[in-house]
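Fig. S4 source data, part A: sequence.
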Amino acid sequence: MIISRRALLGTTLGAPFAATLPPLASPALAQGQWPARPVRVIVPWPPGGSTDVLARLVAEQLSQTLGQPFVVENRPGAGGNIGADAIAKSTPDGYTMGPVTVGGWSINQYLYARLPYDPEKDIAPISMHWELPNVLAVPAAHVPATNMRDFVAWAKAKRGGVNYGSPGVGTTPHLSGSMFTNRLGIEGVHVPFRGAAQTIPALLAGDVDFALDNLASYVPIIASGQMRALAVTSAERWPTLPDVPTMAEAGVPDFVVTSWCAMAFPAGVPAEIMRRAAAGIKAVSETPAMQDRFLRTGARAIWSTPEEAAARAGRERPMWREVVRISGARLE
């Protein structure tokens, strides 16, 4: 999922956005021993992607809230495994943290032949960070269907089946597309790309027929009318697309799939530091200005206790293990 970093950061990290946020520092957060020096924030994805942009939003506000710089360092590669492993192997003193997406918590252990870290033992969730649904999008110029029922009928009747695009093997868009075609008995061929920046032009050209891709990259192209959004994979309708039904409303029950991210420390960080970090993330994420900014990028700012984040990761592992099995995906 790729978002223009310039577009998002231009009004986000500069003075205009900062001016809309109320002061977040409070005596409860401003006092205490942690953090006593800068905190490194390892982002396991490239600069400019949504995880990077949203992490930078929170890092800047944590710096203001907790009184120390939170310095972002990008460590991309291997589906987020390189950065997650760097977090896992750092000193558990509270001075290295980072955003680990659902792949790092609940998918990659079933997708990769070898994982350099154990997501259940080597990294510890601090708090949920963001969540966003996938959207079933079709190119208006090439797919006649305007609703899910008609699309399924069209896809089943199409000679040779349909092609669906994704930002790569093992991503939630790939696995969602595989689950969708399998569930509905559609003959589907997966076409991996290097992010939505390649998938969207392929859709518009008619080279692929649909994508069940992360919503954040598709909001502008849906608004332009060049693509139709047939359904979102969240449990409820998405605030910025109120006219687009959920998968259940569109006739595909039990299809709630969201991409999400939780901030993580390496395992073994003291409980008091964990508590203060979680409180800091909650403080910055619950402000109306931050929630509005996240929604405008296609995501939702969320937070949780460490225990709640760990429970969600564990709860979703069986589902993703089965979806990976169905997809046949396997990476070295």
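Fig. S4 source data, part B ends here. Confidence is low (pLDDT under 50) at residues 1-31.
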